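#onboarding

Welcome to the new folks! Below is a worked example of what a typical request in this channel looks like: someone posts a single protein sequence, and someone else replies with the predicted structure as tokens. Don't worry about understanding the tokens yet, we'll cover that in week two.

Example request:
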Amino acid sequence: MGERKGQNLYYPPDYDPKVGGLNKFMGTHALRERARKLHMGILIIRFEMPYNIWCEGCNNHIGMGVRYNAEKTKIGMYYSTPVYQFRMKCHLCDNHFEIKTDPGNLDYVIVSGARRQENRWDPTENGQIVPETKEAQKKLFDDAMFRLEHKTGDEEASKLDKPRLGRLVGRNENVWKDDYDANCALRRKFRKRRKELEESAVNDSLLLAKSSLAINLLPENEDDRNMAALLSLRPSRSIEEKQTVTQNKIMNTPALQSSSGLITSFGGLKKEESLSKQPVLTRNNLGVVIKKNKVDLDEKLNVKESSSVHGPLIQNEDVNVQKDDIGLNKRKNEQNERELVDGKCKDKVWSLVGDYSSSGESSE
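Example response:
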């Protein structure tokens, strides 16, 4: 990198090749800004997060593979392997965390500023290849019987895994042998799905605009379709029926309030015909009952006793007087009924009083 930059940069007229390269002549380093702390034993590199961590400064999750500009420092040795430590700043807050290498366990260890998200498992459970430990390697080198047993176990494991490996190889050849066809099939599938999503988005927007809603609609499923088919959203009356009811109400309702009893509605003629067809109001229809007082009953008993004493003459005179009173009451009742029909009586409850003053009797 440094040589490429040195060769492609401008060479000044006073450049002397005897001094050395262009970087040495200009007094710069080939790594430029990455080597600004090189005198302190720090080199700035591009570090990639080896696993998922949680930042202790902002408690945010940082995924595996996120890259940082880290300060690389050599802090020790593990036998002949150097141990490096990396210091970097979180991109979500001002916290710094440090991670160092662990050559003995082939891993990275968090020194400070973060904590590891524990997603570990035994590699032997999912069929991964596990490297041999130092003791197993030394025993394989020294013990012939152990080496033979180990070889036999490896052969048996390969026989068990051979069908599965064959299926994986066959699938790989069938699916990815022709990259162009596989790519076309995948893009065709995505294109179809994208069209379906666009149509669904248009239908959802129309439904929300019609309902005046501002919510997110979930995709429909078969249960929703069956439930919607069972529901019937129909009005109780059609438009024609509502119009007919409204017209009848207008025609049969009085337009003006009248105190003279005249019919002043838009449908006056129809109402007059309907009233003419109604039966004539009588005392029985109105529920009017003539009640007798106790004094009247006593007078009637006295009349009956006197009739029994004086003979049939007095009885005949009493009967004639009662007939005249009955005829007079009948004419009064008929006159009251005609007044009710003409609309002159406005009260909802009527009471009729019979006059028996001529015969010395009273009723309520």
